[in-house]
Structure formats: structure tokens, C-alpha cells
Amino acid sequence: MVTVPTLLLSCSFQPAPPPMSKFTGVCLQFVNLLDRDTFSKSDPICVLYTQAMGNREWREFGRTEVIDNTLNPDFVRKFILDYFFEERQNLRFDLYDVDSKSANLSKHDFLGQAHCTLGEIVGSLGSRLEKPLGGIPGKKCGTIIVKAEELNNCRESVMMQFCGNKLDKKDFFGKSDPFLVFYRSNEDGTFTICHKTEVVKNTLNPVWQAFKIPVRALCNGDYDRTIKIEVYDWDRDGSHDFIGEFSTSYRELSRGQSQFNVYEVVNPKKKGKKKKYLNSGTVTLLSFLVDTEVTFLDYIKGGTQINFTVAIDFTASNGNPAQPTSLHYMSPYQLNAYAMALKAVGEIIQDYDSDKMFPALGFGAKLPPDGRVSHEFALNGNPQNPYCAGIDGVMEAYYQSLKSVQLYGPTNFSPVINHVARYAASVKDGSQYFVLLIITDGVISDMAQTKESIVNASCLPMSIIIVGVGPAEFDAMVELDGDEVRISSRGRYAERDIVQFVPFRDYIDRTGNHILSMARLAKDVLAEIPDQFLSYMRTRGIKPSPAPPPYTPPGQPIQTQI
Q1: CA distance 262 to 282
Q2: I want to staple 344 with a disulfide (CB 3.0 to 4.6 A). Which of 244, 360, 400, 522 is the partner?
Q3: What is the 3-state secondary structure (H, E, C) of 393-440?
Q4: Alpha-carbon span 5 to 150, nearest angstrom
């Protein structure tokens, strides 16, 4: 892993020498949006789409929160993107007026869109790009303001809780409904919103719920950077009443609950008009707790092993392996789709497995000598020890199996899923994580059993990658993926999303560049593994083991820094 220097971007951007990747926070603000609501203003949400390397397909990257009743939203949620100087990273921002709780964007009113590249934002003066929204002929859709700020490599989060005391009364028939808005100061002296608390109804002495925020979002890792907090009285129509404000810094807040963290809430207009004005109440920090976010690599450094298992479809729908039309055909000139998928994924995962021994299974074939159908057989012919030495060993066992078994059917996934799940169930301490790669050509036959197996496996340290090869329709596989709707079986929902499905045809390079095809496939199917891995560890409260000390050759003195 390359360690990237962390720099704060100033008004003039100096591109770093390639290759270089950085984390870039993209902040979004809109001005003068279309009003699609009859009796109130729009309730906007912004959706960010990106394009993969060499791929024109737009894929949803993320969504902001919804802000009610406004035509000038300043969104709290930021998008964190890797910035690559050597790539053209196309971005598309779509804006919608939310009309219901549906996640389906077609159910909401389209307000406009804007296209740009990440380099275009970063290269603009002050890394601030302002563009008109388009997408609706004959309409002025408003303006998008996009800011990019390179983030400090800060992995700390802080849990804070505040309370208010004797805040100004703003409501005629009752007390105030106060909430806090936090702003991070930027290099150019402007402020960017980074958090809103919930509203506490009808009180002048609110106690807000504790909240967790990354330190990089609060101050970009600069402990002395100004943090501005504004106090408002919530109003249903969105015209919230300003109570007052105060400023602090991360360093001041880090002192915790003390006399230093009791802040006077000041309304500058009142202070300018009234000589005897003191304040509009006080806000007190009740608690401040720092937590360091652990990453996938922290566990790998601590010794967690990734165990890789492959399961290959040997059903008759693949075609006769001796014929060039078969998906299993072994051409002397190039790898078939099964071999390419296996090699693409396996060669990356094998770096995280110390012994490089991988179980390789097949399903849907008749086995010698009696021709019995099996949905869980060892490719190397040894059911007691299905392990193969390295990815090359798996490839060799696959080729040998094609010569000895008879392709048959049906296409059953549950036996191989249960096979890996049995091993995963025996090691739940975080020392091992299991990844099963299933490569298949057709429609699944045991859908109900497979869904039950996935639901059962979702509480185990394992992930499942399914790669579809060939021209078949794979609609059923999308249901297993669980990205949009969490998979369930017999009324029981999967604890985590552990399945990633992709059709290989989406990654084949049209120019015949199979290396590029394999790189694209591996990049996509492995993308969810770190998050799935972390979701298991976090829900189980498993911390990474300490990294072992650096290796010292025999006879060399251990160097100690004084």
C-alpha cells in the first residue's frame, strides 16, 4: 500500500506527480432550484453517479440526505472519492424533489443535472466549481456549487454530546424547539456545514443526543481550525429562527467537560442593538470520546487470513468441453471465461493467504466411476483434501476435472455455500475470513435452499462472489446480491449483505484485451469485500490484533528511538 502525503489544498492547485491517489471530499450546494411542489418548496436530494475505468455506464455512487422545503440546499453529507491524476473521473450529479419514502428515483420529480470531472473541480480556483444545472429543456434549473477538499489521513472519530441552558424563547405559544448546526472552516475563510443535531421540542434547556463524527469532517485533522456552531429554533415551514452562535476548535473540545467548554450563545444583531445584552443562553459540552476507526488493512496487518474457495459450474448447459462453442473449451491460444474469472479474482485474494492452499470444488457433474451426480466434489479428486497449491494448482485441477467428469445438472449453489459455511462457523474470532467464488453459466435451480444458506451464512465470517459467464439471463442472481433489497428466507432476513454478483460479459474488453477484462472484473467483484469484512468484525466487536514488530535479522541490534 502506498502512503500518500496529506496536504491542504490552497487556492492554486499543484498537481502531484503520477501515480498518486488522494481522498477528496466533495461538498455540494445548490442555488435557485426549480420549485416542483404546489403548496411548499421542493424537498431536494442529490445523487452522485460515477463511471468506471473505460466504462460509459453510470453507476450510483451515493446520495445526500433530503432537505425539506428549500430551493437553496447546502447538504451535510459529503462524498469521499479517490482522486487519480492519471484518470478522467467523470461525475454526474442528479437532483430530485423527494415526494415519498421510496428509494426508487423514478417516483420523485427530476430537478436537473450537471456533469463535470473530479479534475475539473480540483483544478478550479479554490477547488470550487460553479455550473448551471441542465437536463430540463426550456427551464432554468438553478446552479450547482461543488467544492473539493483533500482530506487529511485522519482515522479518528469523536463522540460528543451537548446541552443548552436558558436559550432564547422564539415561539409565541410555546418554548423554542432548538437544534445545533456545526460548520468546519475552510482555507479561504468560508464555512462548510458538517453536522446537524436532532430537534429537541418545546424546551429552553435541551439535551441533545450524543453523535459521532469523523475528525476529518469536523476539522480536516487540523485541531486548531475554527469550528462554528449555530443554534436555531426549528419551524415547520423551514424558516428556522436564529438564536445565536459560538466558535470553538477541536483542541478546545478535546478538554472534555470543564469550565472551558461552556459557551455563551451570542446573537450579533441583538448584541449590536442592546447595550445590556449578555447572551442568548449557553451551550455546554457534556462528553467527548475519541475513537480510532480501524480499516481492513489493520486486520490484515494483525494477521487475519483470507481463505479463498472456488466452486465451478459443471452443468451440461455449458456445452461439450471438446467443442469451441463450449464455455469450458480449452483453447491453446487463450483462457476460457471460467479460467479468466478464476485467475482474475484468485490472483488478488491469494496475497492475503499465507499458505496459498485453496479448496477447489465443482458442482452439477456425474463423477467416475459410477456416474453419480454431485454438487460438491473436489476438483483434484480428493474429497478428504480438496486443497490446491496456489491459483495455478486450482487451474490445473479444473482442467483435469474437465477430462474426467461428465457435465450434467441441475445448477445447485446451496451445497458449496454450506461447505464453506461449515468451516467459517468453526472460526469466529476474527483470525480468518472466508471468500467463496462461484462461477456459473445458468439459471439457479435451488433458489429457496440457496437463499436459506445465504441467510444462515450472513452471520458468519464469509462473503460470496458469483460470476455469471456466457449469454444467459441472470435476473435471479440480482436478487441474491441484496444491494437493493436485503435477501430473506422463511421470514428471516440476512444479517449482512454478503453476496456480490456480476455478469462477466460486462467486463470483456471489445478490443480483445483479456488482461484489461480481468482487471475490470477483479476490481468490481472485490470492491465490496473490505466493507463486508469490516461489517462482520464491527458487529461482533472484534478488534484487529496488534501488528507484529518489524523483523530484525539475527545478530542485528534492536534500534530504539530516544
Answers
A1: 7
A2: 522
A3: HHHHHHHHHHHHCEEECCCCCHHHHHHHHHHHHCCCCCCEEEEEEEEE
A4: 11
